[in-house]
Amino acid sequence: FIKMENYFKDIEKKLKKKxxxxxxxxxxxxxxxxxxxFFTEDKYHLHxxxxxxxxxxxxRLNAQKLVMNVLKDDLKTKIHALEISIE
Length: 87
Hints:
The protein has a three-stranded mixed β-sheet with strand order 1-2-3. The protein contains four helices and three strands. The chain is α+β, with helices and mostly antiparallel strands. The protein starts with a helix and ends with a strand.
């Protein structure tokens, strides 16, 4: 779990560099997907809950693209599924 917490801190740092937000909650839903066809221990199913006046000020699609773009390398290596909620 230490590794996972460090990894989530990395995600926070990456997002903070590129996107202004007030609050970020990272929920790990990986366990819910155990047994699914493409489930692997080393890839996460994450739900990001982002409270951001900036992201709310642009279109939902652009906001999601921005987040995905910041995490694009992670999506290739560490993240299998990403759900984004913007408040």
